[in-house]
Amino acid sequence: MQQILVIDDDRDMRFLLLRYLKKNDFDVWEADSGKAAMALLEARQPNLILCDFKLGDMTGNALLKEVKERFPVIPFIIITGYADIRIAVEAMKLGAFDYVIKPLIPDELLLTIQKALVGGRNAIEVHTPAKVKKGGANLNQYIFGDSLVFRNLLEQINRVAPTNYSVIIYGETGSGKEAIAQEIHKRSSRHQKPFVAIDCGALSKELAGSELFGHEKGAFTGALFQKTGSFEIADGGTIFLDEIANLPYDVQVSLLRVVSERKIRRVGGTKDIPLDVRIVVASNELLWDNTRQNKVRFREDLFHRFNEFAITVPPLRERKEDIKVFTEHFLAQANAELGKSIKGFSAEVDDIFRNYIWYGNLRELKNVIKRAALLTDTDRIEAQSLPFEITHFPKLLLQIEPIIHDVQTEASSTPLLLPKLPNLADTIKGASLDAEYGLILKVLKEVNFNKTKAAKLLKIDRKTLYNKLDEYRLLIGNSQVTHDITT
Question: pTM score, two decimals?
Answer without folding.
Answer: 0.56
